[in-house]
Design brief:
With 265 residues, this protein is of the alpha/beta class. Helix content is 33%, strand content 22%. The termini are far apart.
Length: 265
C-alpha cells in the first residue's frame, strides 16, 4: 500500500520539486522529474522508474498505477499542487533515473541529429520527438542547449528522451569530427554557401549527422566548418524563416533512413 503524504514540506516532496527546478541537481542525482499519466507511463517503458506520486482521484482513474514496481506515495491535492507548481494538474508525478547512454555507445554509420545552442525547451523536445519518430539513432546536444530532462523538454518530447539515445557533449565540433570518423557525413543546416534541400540526397545505407542551430543564432561557424556540406530549405519571401523545430523536422524527414515497422499518420 502506498504511503500517504499530507505535508507540502515532506522531504520526498522537496526532493522531487528540486529535481524539477534544477538542472545541476538532476545531473548530480542522475534523476529527473516528470508529470502526467501518459508521459509517466511512456517514460516507464524505457527509463528506470524510482518513485511515483499520485492523488486518490488519479488512482481511481488509473488503478494500474498501483501495480508499478517502485516506491509509491499517495499525495493530497494541496501536495500535488506543489509538485505541479500550479493548481491545475493530472495528479500523477514520477521520479526516473537517467537512461544509461554514452557517446561511445552511438552506432558507427548511424543517423544522428546534433543541436547547437538550441535553448528553447519546446524546440529541443519537439526535435528529439521527430528524430525518434523518423528512425534516427541518437541526438547529440552541444553546450547551450536546453536540458533534455527538464519538465518542459520532457512534455514537448512526449517521452521520446527514453526512446532514442540523447547525449550531451562539451564540444560539438569535436563530436561531429568523431561522428565523421565513424562513417557519418555531417550536414549543416545553414543559409549561406548551402545547397537547396531537393538537391541533396544521402543513400539510406550511409551514415549522417544533421546539425541544426537555434532560430536566433543559427549554427556557430565552428560547427559549420567541420561539416562536409551545408543544406537549406527553400521558402518563399513571404516569411523570413521557419521555427527551429519545424525546419528541423522537415530536414529529419528528408534525410531519414530506412524506417522499419513504421506507422503512417
Amino acid at each position: 500500500m502506498a504511503e500517504c503524504i499530507t505535508s507540502r514540506e515532506n522531504s520526498k516532496i522537496k526532493y522531487a520539486c528540486k529535481l524539477a527546478q534544477s538542472a545541476a541537481f538532476r545531473l548530480e542525482e542522475q534523476a529527473f522529474f516528470a508529470e502526467g499519466l501518459k508521459l509517466c507511463e511512456e517514460l516507464a517503458k524505457t527509463c528506470p522508474l524510482k518513485v511515483i506520486y499520485y492523488t486518490q482521484k488519479a488512482l481511481d482513474k488509473a488503478p494500474q498505477l498501483a501495480q508499478l514496481a517502485c516506491d509509491q506515495y499517495l499525495v493530497q491535492d494541496h501536495v500535488a499542487e506543489k509538485l505541479a507548481g500550479m493548481p491545475s494538474h493530472q495528479g500523477v508525478f514520477a521520479v526516473f533515473g537517467y537512461p544509461k547512454v554514452e557517446f561511445s555507445q552511438l552506432p558507427a554509420g548511424g543517423r544522428f541529429l546534433a543541436l547547437d545552442r538550441v535553448q528553447d525547451p519546446g524546440n529541443v523536445g519537439a526535435l528529439i520527438r521527430s528524430a525518434a519518430a523518423f528512425g534516427y539513432d541518437g541526438v547529440v546536444l552541444g553546450p547551450g542547449c536546453a536540458d533534455p530532462y527538464s519538465p518542459k523538454v520532457l512534455r514537448a518530447s512526449m517521452g521520446a528522451v527514453g526512446q532514442i539515445p540523447v547525449v550531451s557533449c562539451p564540444n560539438l565540433p569535436d563530436a561531429l569530427r568523431q561522428l565523421h570518423s565513424m562513417g557519418c557525413e555531417c550536414l549543416a543546416a545553414a543559409l549561406y554557401n548551402s545547397q537547396p534541400l531537393d538537391a541533396v540526397w544521402i543513400p539510406p545505407e550511409k551514415g549522417l549527422c544533421l546539425a541544426i542551430g537555434s532560430e536566433g543564432q543559427g549554427l556557430s561557424q565552428a560547427v559549420i566548418d567541420v561539416c562536409q556540406r551545408a543544406v537549406r530549405i527553400p521558402i518563399t519571401p513571404r516569411v523570413e524563416s521557419l521555427n527551429a523545430s519545424v525546419a528541423g523536422s522537415v530536414l529529419l524527414w528528408h534525410f531519414r533512413g530506412e524506417m522499419k515497422g513504421c506507422n503512417s499518420l
